[in-house]
Amino acid sequence: MTRSKLESIFLLMSERDEAFYKDPANLRQILQDFEINPKFEGRTLVDLDLSHVIDFSNFLNRGYETANQLRTLGEAKRIWKETLAEDENVIYLGLSGDMVTAGIAPVVCYMMEHGYIDGIVSQGANLFHDTARTFGYLRRQTSPQKYPDTELFQEGAVRMYDTLEKTEPQIFTPLMMTHIARELTEGGPKVLTTRELYNHIGRFLIEKKLEKYPGILTTAYRKNVPIWVAGPESSVLMMDLAAAANKGGFPIEVGVTKDLIEQARIQEELEGLGYRTNLVEIGGGVVRNTLQQIATMSYLLRGGLWNMEEPEWFKKHRNAILITTDTGLPYGGASSVPMVEHNPHHQYPNQGENLSWGKFDSEGRRTTVYMDATVALPLLVLGLRDDEEVRAIMANRKPLKFTNLGGENLQLQTK
Predict the structure, then answer these.
(1) Which of 90, 167, 278, 341, by CA, is between 20 and 30 Å from 245?
(2) Where are the domains of the chain?
(3) 157 and 166 in contact (C-beta within 8 Å)?
(4) Which of 322, 257, 276, 341 is nearest to 90 (CA)?
(5) Which CATH architecture has domain 87-138+165-374?
(6) Hey, how many other C-beta atoms are within 10 angstroms of the C-beta on 11?
(7) pLDDT tens digit sequence for 100-137
């Protein structure tokens, strides 16, 4: 019968006489095998020695060799880098949460400017706050208990947790959206996709010289990055457009069904051209599901019944990174379902609820970073920025381009 490692150690120690252990010089002889039993799979963990960290890329590379969320952050950087390395990969950013008022808009702009993402699905509130920031409105730090919220309301300020913003943009944007509605309906009634509307808002901000600071919408307009909005009615800008239609009489609407059909068509065309979609998701909720369900919408174009057995009915995403602080998996929250449900005791160790819906390719790489996105996203982007191999990849990358972003039919331009 073979002895276990632990039994062998105890046997060796029992063979020593008492005098051996009384001499401290002999202690080193007891220490022999420093490696964990090779039957247990996994990389040997490497401690984070900051004296060897030279930049953010190196920090995340070394972090990948450690544990917990620093390891998953390092894994996320590797996945993003590997995704960029293949021209046929298209990368969508899902933008949930209060990212703009927290100061992250320039990070998103940087990602567009340097080609780290190709398209965006956002919730509407981020884009209203982005518009206010583009105008030049500043925000101020506060704390939830510092002032009565009723006083803030009376004094023309709104609060987003620990940040204050002036109410004034909410008074100005209805004027802007009325002008945009008038302009877009000069040729007759319009039913727009959210992508068309927000592209026109970005254009209007630039053309009318309303852009004090480059914003997400204005940068997306310049870089031809399409932005769709999930749950578009949850936004001041959409309320302003509704006011222009209702009170101003402008025949303009935003059609959610048009968004869905367009997203299904683009996904179908991308796969037909040999491209694959990949996701970087900030938070969850309706934005996350809107992004993920694009892979399942081929039936919108094909008609007939959903056919689960025919692979062409599913245009699955390949790689994915989720950044979230929501860990309430047992309670069924859409935000908290991890990309991979690690369970070493299960015969299917890389389970993912999203696989059961046909949203992801099981051969793709997926990870979940449980971290505040205002910390994790800038670190990831800095890691890509400081990586010499990423710079070489981006210098030679020939990604797909979107064209006609302000028109009714979004077009694809191949390399």
Answers:
(1) 167
(2) 87-138+165-374
(3) yes
(4) 276
(5) 3-Layer(aba) Sandwich (3.40)
(6) 10
(7) 988 999 999 999 999 999 999 999 999 999 999 999 98
